[in-house]
Amino acid sequence: MIEKCGRGKHLRRRQDKAIMEKNKSQSVKVDNFSSTIGLAANPGFQSTLSIASKGLPQDDKPYNPFEHRNVQHPNTTLGSILHLLKSCLGSGILAMPAAFKNSGLVAGVIGTILAGFVCTHTVHILVKTSQQICVEAKRPSLSFAETCGAAFMYGPKRLRSWSGAIQKFVDYSLSVTYLSVLCVYVVFIGSSLKEALDVYMPGYQLSIQAYCALSLVPLVVVCQIRNLKYLVPFSAIANALIFLVFAITLYYMFFDLPPVSDRVMVANVSTWPLFLSTVIFAMEGIGVVMPVENEMANPRRFLGCPGVLNTSMFIVITLYGVFGFFGYVQFGDDVKGSVTLNLPQDEIIAQSAKLIMAFVIYLTYALQFYVPMEIITRMLATRKSNSYENLIQITIRTCLVTLTVAIGAAFPNLELVIGLVGAIFFSTLGLFIPVAVQTIYLWEKDFGRFNYILWKNIIIAIIAIIALVSGAYVSIDGILEDFGRHTVINIVDENSTVT
């Protein structure tokens, strides 16, 4: 009996020793595998799984998306500000005097400040929501469309199945929106070239459509640039030149300025929608925001005070207010879709400003073109083969530029086209979608005290819908009226020629 007990103890010791050795071996394997250095260094693999064992100490540090970003060509803070300024300070600012014509001086100043605040706020909540989702989803960065889709995925359970459809919808909407903006740029280039060159070539006066067609080849060439970092020098050059144009334009604005009392303080309410849609078009750079933030060397500097966003938008709102107010005071109801087109035709400096601004818009075209191409490139990345990648890129870019030139030449009324694009596209993408995304993401989380975030978002959504419906109606009605007027003039001219 004693011998049997001794054998049992000896057997248990051997079993315990075997179990300890086995656990030790497994512990070593877990420790060797628990290193995340290799995974974090690979941007193509973003793990959402925790390798740590429940029996081991947990790292309570939340996921920081900024630490996991691996940007090949990061932008500096200054470069990011230049990109945002360039995306906003384009043809839109030169349309502000025409916008003030549709609002009046007092209503225009108040409306510009309010619209600027709302546009800045919607961009802010879009970026903030994207960063919050990145932490929860353990993703280093998200595009605009990915942020919208992820908001549904991490929002209410009954809406999660909509995630993929929403992401595709926003992708397609962004592409169409910025292609529409590029059409406006083509019209602006054609109008500026015609205004300047017709004076010096009276025997070879071409139509706006012809000048739009002449811009095709240069636009195709500049749009072959595929990296946002390499567009920074273009933004710097364009910003320097645009301030030169602003200086020249301001000189003519303030030269022999009429009394402010000669202008309307508050215009008829029926023209306010055109003012609002023009301001939204001018200020919104919603599609450029996420690519710029995602490619910053230090993304923490995008939001906050002063921050990249606040600094850029403060400059934008100030310049827009000055141009709109004094441009309308100087030129009154005769102001055109771009105030540079009102500059004297018999002075070289004024004519040079038109040519320089056409070149600035040419450079800006390449930056705005980056938005739809970034979306298309992501779609192409799902292909199984990378064969003919270069040829496909060149072909798509050439076809898109050609399409914008053709559409721009077909609708050369700059003021009405700007209003239509701003009303339909930017009021939806720039105002409505950001507040909808934040509302859906926070639906089962926290709307703050008294649900103030929810009520604030509802008010902005109502403003977006009003801008969409009223702005689109006024713009389309003006385009149809303008088209009918030109048709009658052409018929009269043909009859006169026959006679």
From TrEMBL:
It is a multi-pass membrane protein. Its main location: membrane. The keyword Transmembrane applies. It is found in: Membrane. It comes from the Eukaryota. Keywords: Membrane, Transmembrane, Transmembrane helix. Residues 75-476 form the Amino acid transporter transmembrane domain. Coiled coil: none annotated. One of its GO terms (cellular component) is vacuolar membrane. The chain crosses the membrane at residues 169-191, 203-223, 230-252, 272-290, 302-328, 348-371, 391-411, 417-442, 454-476. One of its GO terms (molecular function) is L-amino acid transmembrane transporter activity. This is Amino acid transporter transmembrane domain-containing protein. It comes from Bombyx mori (Silk moth).
